[in-house]
């Protein structure tokens, strides 16, 4: 049975640009270590993972450069650092495989979304991808435009025959 993805949970932050900038080869789910005010801030729908990536620090996998704003209703003594590295919780075998791929093949691990699963636990959907070049981006945009035009033509032809 397949693991439930972010569709089954409530999305807190999404990296919409990742699929445009990278060829995503595979995705995996990881836990994330957060403090209380970070969870509250994410539940309110704030946060950005647009410029973030996952990398190795001190032998563990960390989410770097993710922005989770301070939770305004908490006091000034209970606030968190907004752009601190956050530890990602993955199995040791998965982490070793990811680190090997990053070092050997030059791939990047980018977060696609942060969401809360059915149990209310924050999860990160990570994508293992290779960067697209400018020509690849243009080809993807051209293909997307063609699909949209094709659907428009089919819809208009169907109205003529009724």
From TrEMBL:
Residues 137-162 have a biased composition (Basic and acidic residues). GO terms for cellular component: cytosol. Keywords: Cytoplasm, RNA-binding. Residues 130-162 are annotated as: Disordered. Its main location: cytoplasm. GO terms for biological process: trans-translation; trans-translation-dependent protein tagging. It is found in: Cytoplasm. GO terms for molecular function: RNA binding. PANTHER family: SSRA-BINDING PROTEIN, TMRNA-BINDING COMPONENT OF TRANS-TRANSLATION TAGGING COMPLEX. Belongs to the SmpB family. Required for rescue of stalled ribosomes mediated by trans-translation. Binds to transfer-messenger RNA (tmRNA), required for stable association of tmRNA with ribosomes. tmRNA and SmpB together mimic tRNA shape, replacing the anticodon stem-loop with SmpB. tmRNA is encoded by the ssrA gene; the 2 termini fold to resemble tRNA(Ala) and it encodes a 'tag peptide', a short internal open reading frame. During trans-translation Ala-aminoacylated tmRNA acts like a tRNA, entering the A-site of stalled ribosomes, displacing the stalled mRNA. This is SsrA-binding protein. It comes from Skermanella aerolata.
